[in-house]
From TrEMBL:
Name of the protein in its database record: AlpA family transcriptional regulator
Coiled-coil positions: none
Transmembrane segments: none
PANTHER family recorded: DNA-BINDING TRANSCRIPTIONAL ACTIVATOR ALPA
One Pfam assignment: Phage_AlpA
Alphabetized InterPro entries for the sequence: AlpA, Prophage_regulatory_activator
Length: 66
């Protein structure tokens, strides 16, 4: 069975350094994966999706790290 870690908005903001507004703008532009609906008024993101976003940002800004 696969184990998934779900991060809430506060955690995603802390890991990425993005504000809520910036995060949702990137989602709208298709540059950040959409959140997963957890309940009527709650969402979360897969930790793997957030880590992938961070990795791609590092690769884009520091090609020598690849």
């Amino acid at each position: 069975m696969t184990s998934f870690q779900i991060l809430r908005l506060t955690q995603v903001k802390a890991l990425t350094g993005l504000s809520k507004t910036s995060l949702y703008q990137l989602i709208k532009q298709g540059k950040f994966k959409k959140p997963i609906r957890l309940g009527a008024r709650s969402v979360g993101w897969l930790q793997t999706d957030v880590e992938e976003f961070i990795t791609e940002r590092v690769k884009a800004s520091r090609p020598e790290i690849q």
